[in-house]
């Protein structure tokens, strides 16, 4: 079921010094890292990132916990199957299968960006396996009435959007950088690790598919939101970058209105708190799980 493999040549092992593991799922080979012992922390990334986003979290938290971080199929070091749906629903089903096959229990679920709906939907399905939830900037409700989402959706579904995503590798090259308040927090050697998984047009299709799902999966997000009671009695920690231009504090307010007992920490940074406020968010998670 589990296999190990040497990393691809572009991976900077000084930044990402982990054993690479693979799990055969129905849809393809999923890459993941599994470091440390103890209570499980399951890290779920969004787009255009991969488990590399959580590298420093794994290095530090694996001293006391079992840290598992997946790469969605089509991302990072996971297989890039042909003709995949690539929707959040599909990714969430893959994550559910992963959780079942490894029989993960008492999970602290850590989610971000598209990893929010992907991970939380899997968590709703397996609520008895979830102990705590850590939420970075994300959402879990319908998007088809969000003006900003509709603007993005119009571009993504145009010839220009398709060209930018598939020909120019626009998501990791440009959009990722826009998610930072301080561009110094994205040095070239780190940025390269987000660009390299998508070397050609075919490899970039999963990025385009998720982008199209921002509004395309609106009804599915809302369905998960309506089932959130399956997880709302868990302990929640919300770590929020208040300078995020898209997933703004308006989204945070909606979470807070729904999860009135959740603890919230706000950071003066953009969308990628993991890169801009690394030590602060690691410490917050460590404290959250330990108490």
UniProtKB/TrEMBL annotation:
Asked if Hydrolase is a keyword of the record, the answer is: yes
Superkingdom of origin organism: Bacteria
Q: Which SUPFAM superfamilies match?
A: alpha/beta-Hydrolases
What InterPro entries is this protein classified in?
AB_hydrolase_1, AB_hydrolase_fold
Q: Name one GO molecular function term.
A: hydrolase activity
- Domain AB hydrolase-1, residue spans: 40-277
Question: Mind telling me which Pfam families this protein's record contains?
Answer: Abhydrolase_1
Record key words, sorted: Hydrolase
Cited PANTHER family? ALPHA/BETA-HYDROLASES SUPERFAMILY PROTEIN, LIPASE-RELATED
Protein's recorded name = Alpha/beta hydrolase
UniProt organism field: Mangrovivirga cuniculi
Q: What lineage does the source organism belong to?
A: Bacteria, Pseudomonadati, Bacteroidota, Cytophagia, Cytophagales
């Amino acid at each position: 079921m589990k296999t190990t493999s040497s990393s691809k040549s572009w991976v900077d092992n000084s930044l990402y010094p982990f054993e690479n593991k693979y799990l055969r799922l129905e849809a393809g080979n999923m890459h993941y890292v599994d470091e440390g012992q103890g209570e499980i922390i399951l890290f779920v990334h969004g787009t255009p990132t991969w488990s590399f986003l959580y590298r420093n979290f794994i290095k530090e938290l694996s001293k006391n916990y079992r840290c598992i971080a997946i790469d969605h199929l089509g991302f990072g070091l996971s297989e890039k199957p042909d003709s995949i749906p690539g929707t959040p629903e599909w990714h969430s089903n893959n994550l559910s299968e992963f959780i079942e096959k490894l029989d993960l229990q008492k999970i602290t679920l850590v989610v971000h960006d598209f990893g929010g709906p992907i991970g939380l939907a899997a968590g709703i399905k397996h609520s008895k396996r979830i102990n705590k939830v850590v939420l970075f900037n994300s959402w879990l409700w319908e998007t088809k009435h969000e003006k900003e989402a509709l603007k993005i959706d119009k571009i993504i579904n145009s010839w220009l959007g398709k060209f930018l995503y598939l020909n120019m590798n626009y998501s990791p090259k440009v959009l990722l950088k826009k998610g930072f308040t301080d561009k110094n927090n994205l040095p070239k050697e780190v940025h390269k690790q987000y660009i390299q998984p998508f070397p050609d047009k075919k490899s970039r299709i999963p990025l385009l598919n998720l982008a199209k799902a921002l509004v395309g999966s609106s009804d599915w997000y809302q369905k998960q939101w309506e089932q959130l009671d399956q997880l709302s009695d868990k302990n929640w920690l919300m770590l929020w970058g208040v300078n995020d231009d898209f997933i703004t504090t308006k989204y945070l307010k909606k979470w807070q209105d729904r999860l009135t007992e959740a603890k919230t920490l706000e950071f003066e940074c953009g969308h990628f708190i993991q890169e801009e406020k690394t030590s602060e968010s690691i410490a917050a998670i460590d404290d959250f799980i330990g108490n």
